[in-house]
Fold this protein.
Amino acid sequence: MSGIVEKAAEVRFISPEGLYLIVEGRGYFAAFRDFPYLADLRGREVFDLEYCGNGHIRWDAADIDLSTEILSAPEKFPLVMHPAANPAAQLGKRGGAVRSGRKAAASRSNGAKGGRPAKKKILA
């Protein structure tokens, strides 16, 4: 035994184009153009890689999961997740834009009462 402990998964180096990873003794280059969310990892988060078995790796703090299958052929997996600036606001915007029978009925009821009250202008 040499005394050298080898990890099952680790980030070997970072370049402006991406990350070079070793998973199960094999090297993979994760280009930021294929995996843009990896470019958003901060400082030590990049190296906080967890090996989950069967070629599956995870950055727990950033909630990113990848497999060696995806790393070896990213073109076969065209769906790329981009980080959302404000996910709650985006969901609210989508929900507010939905047309439903309940919304239409509420709008008619409000209209029958004279509609939305006018804003009062307060002079200072």
User: Anything to note?
Assistant: The first helix runs from residue 68 to 72. The mean pLDDT is 82. Residues 24 and 43 are 24 Å apart (CA to CA).
